[in-house]
Amino acid sequence: MRKILIAFSTALLLTACQESLEEKCAREAKTYTEKKCPAPINENTQIDSLTFDAPTHTLHYHYTLSGNADNKQLMESINPRQVLIEEVKNATAMKLYKEAGYNFSYTYRSKKNPGEILFETTVTRKDYIE
Question: Cβ atoms within 10 A of the Cβ of 44, count?
Answer without folding.
Answer: 15
